[in-house]
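TEACHING EXERCISE
Course module: macromolecular assemblies
Task: Read the component lines below, then compare them to the predicted structure of the full complex.
Student: A.B.
Group: 4
Components provided:
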Amino acid sequence: MEKREELYAGKAKSVFTTDDANLLVLVFRNDTSAFDGKIIEKLERKGAVNNQFNAFIMQKLSDAGIPTHYEKLLSPTESLVKRMEMIPLECVVRNFAAGSLVRRLGVEEGQELTPPTFELFLKNDALGDPMVNEFHARSFGWATDAQLDKMKELTFKVNDVLKKLFADGNMLLVDYKLEFGVFQGEIILGDEFSPDGCRLWDKETREKMDKDRFRQGLGGVIEAYEEVGKRLGMTFNYDK
Ligand code: UDP
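Instructor-supplied answer key:
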């Protein structure tokens, strides 16, 4: 497999084509952004930590029967993935109230949500990823009914697998964001799962162990990500 030209550079990852039209290389960079890219900083080791964290989680999800774009690790900061047609929506599941939900509804942070709730956001940085509903998705052709049903089903299946995985590491999975795409006619999980796109709290102290440390200027961002990995039994490789 040969890495070819850069297709796209996002806020934290770059995407390269390969000599196989069905495969892409994701390069996880050290760039860390918040508030729709208004704040960007380089954090040492972040690319390696998120790439390997994502690989670990995608493997667990795949073992649980959830179809994902993840193929294999290529290097400490690179992964091979399937090339999909992306659905321009973010699927969010929340087990506890935090972040934009707290700001929008004025509810208390940390309130447990039973049952967990589901939200859709449009992927559009210029508009600040506005919240949308399933009718918007259908009317504007972002996703069909069948695709929305599949995305919801898979997003909640991910919750079953990961709530337990993090609980075993003495952590609460507060919320997370997933993105899906279509590969050979099927909806599969894409993008990444890392502490950049979810909230994780220590079960006892409720200390934040995710990107909120960066958003809120709490420091120790990558150290917290590494601690999450350690609690899941991971070891990271930082070779260049
Ligand atoms: N999230 C994300 N990318 C986004 C927006 C949100 O990965 O562009 C994640 C975020 O890290 C959290 C969950 O989705 O785990 C819910 O985020 P929320 O709607 O609370 O927005 P935020 O407070 O992060 O702006």
